[in-house]
Amino acid sequence: MLVHHYNLALVAVSVTIAIVNSYVSFSVIGRILHSRGWQASAWVTLGAMAMGFGVWSMHFVGMLAFDIGTPLGYSTGLTLLSVVPAILAAGIVCRQMASPKITTASLALAGTVMGAGVGAMHYTGMAAMRMSPSIVWDWAIVVLSVLFAVAGSIASLAVGVRVGLERRRSRRVAWRIAASVVMGCTVSGMHYLGMAAAGLRQGALCLTAHDLVHGRWLAMVVTVVALGVLVSTALMALAHQRVQRHSRRMDVELEQARSALHFQAFHDTLTGLPNRAMMMEKLRDALQRQEHSPVAVMFIDLDGFKTINDSLGHEAGDMFLCSVAAALRNSVRERDTVARFGGDEFVIALERFGGMDNLVRICRKILDLVSRPVVMDGHPMTVSPSIGVALAPRDGNDAETLLRNADAAMYAVKETGKADFRFFERGMHEMARERLTLTMDLRDALMREQIRVVYQPKWSLSSGQVVGVEALARWHHNERGEVPPLVFVPVAERSGMISMLGEQVLKQVLRQVERWDDEGLHVDYVTINLSLQELRAPAFADRLCRLVQEHEVDPARIRFEITESTAMRDPEQMLDQLRDLRDRGFSLLVDDFGTGYSSLQYLRQMPVSTIKIDQSFVRGSQQNFADREITEAIVALAKKLHLETVAEGVETQAQVNWLRDLGCDVAQGFFFNPPMAPEALGEVLRRGACALS
């Protein structure tokens, strides 16, 4: 046999081409995985051409590295034909490996096809040499080379599968390099095993030595072209990868933007709770799912929240709303829906709530959690929820009706004292319509200045003289007749008209004081009831000063009555506002004393000159020993604090005698006079003192 040897430089080039070709091929397979439609088909075609040509180039360069001492050449037709098996095998492998799910069977099939294609390409190329005498084959090595190609291909493809399983880019690159080295060594190893199987007899000549394909200069051309094709394919794969990466990044950003827009469209931006739109959608879904299990809707409004906004600002109010949202979320199960409808209104939808007893427990839990104090700027702040409840199908079968009925039940709670819950009843809509009509009528009455003021004298229990009067608002409705203050004053507070009402009362009082002065009927002072909303209103004290200056009335002759519960709501903030009024010359008194929860410390600090004993203690004094003791304790406390005491609701001579003996300073009530028109009060003032016994 002829002795042969290899050009080691070309051997190294051939192995390098095989490894680089394998790396590019696995990159192309990755592009196929991330493409669809015609793009995937284009990448399969490109991958097949690049991979097939790369394997063929490695084989061709390896053949050119083979030296037997005589010129070698290759049949042009067979040489070109030898690239076909490599391209076809590469195409099948690219298509198979680009499948989303690769099984062991498909992996074995792809490796077998690749190994067979490499073997077919190699031995077709060997046949292109046309040796005479012909090559003597060692068939054992031939079979071994093909099996080696199949086994190596399966192994490299198995390693390549790991590339798609890794999330970190560095690990994907590492696995791709490993697969490329295995595949490159497999292809080049198969080639040189195949060459070892070929035996050449002494004196053998190549019949195609002078064909077109010959000469070692061709090795350089094939090498450059092969590497050029591989580099071009690699650059195209890299460019495609970057484009897809950018596209994915854009898709992610667009999806994030869509998610953010969807969240903003269906969630409250402050609390993160679902908003009205999402609640309506969820409630409709719940009503469609309901079979024998009812659905409950709770409409919740916060009583006293406006005070927090007015006193501490909207930022503190927002923080407080977030705490309320958390409390509501903790009051129910994860599957229940809690939504903010806007302002201080929240809605809860409950499915499969376990019966009415459990629903009552949930309402009480909400009352407890939401009513707990929250420290804001160092001050404990509280609100109380009013809860209206409607049930489906009993109170409605659609979301709109249920919410409307729950809202009506919530307003019924506010009518009866707030900080409670009620279930919807059929008559509540009539109450709501009545409330709306009354609100509109009151607004019209205020616009037309139809509210009038009556006065009830305050009598000194020591001298029997009128020492002051209390101004009381009255409203005569054209159709309803006299509307009691207990009805229209809460309407004014809820609708935000209390400041307008208070200003009209003050203007009438100031004009009347001027008339009495002109008639020579001096009244020491007039007391006017003051609500918390008025006191919190911006520039309230400035407006008072401007009005009294316009009418030239001494501010000391105007006394404002605030209830004990109002005075104790955020007492530190209240102290500053009351002191501002006192510094401007107005006098202050605490109304309904004994019915609230006054702290003796705050009472001592408050800038008030008078406390007014609630009429319930005076009226109950004859029958209830506890009421007598409370009244006696209030009078004794006032004397210790050097405060004047006023008893209201006095109706009998016995009450007068008892109060005078206690040391109470002033009394008012029907025993003396009912509230009366200014003209009637003028007659009382002209008569002077009255006998009290």
Quick overview of this protein structure:
This protein is an alpha/beta fold and 693 residues long. The chain is 59% helix and 15% strand.
What are its keywords?
24 strands; Alpha-Beta Plaits; eight-stranded mixed beta barrel; alpha/beta; five-stranded mixed sheet; 693 residues
Number of domains: 3
Unreliable parts: none
Counted beta strands: 24
Q: What's the helical proportion of residues?
A: 55-70%
| CATH-level-2 architecture of the largest domain | Alpha-Beta Barrel
- Structural class determined from secondary elements: alpha/beta
The CATH homologous superfamily of the largest domain corresponds to: EAL domain
CATH class of the largest domain: Alpha Beta
State the CATH topology of the largest domain. Answer: TIM Barrel
Could you tell me how far the N terminus lies from the C terminus, measured between alpha carbons in angstroms?
154 Å
The neighbouring-strand order within the major sheet is: 16-17-19-20-21-22-23-24
Beta-strand percent range: 15-25%
* Overall average residue pLDDT: 82
Structure notes:
This protein is of the alpha/beta class and 693 residues long. The chain has 24 helices and 24 strands. The strands form seven sheets. It has an eight-stranded mixed β-barrel with strand order 16-17-19-20-21-22-23-24, surrounded by four helices. A five-stranded mixed beta sheet has the order 10-11-9-14-15, with helices on both faces. A hairpin with a 2-residue loop joins strand 10 and strand 11 (345-351). The termini are far apart.
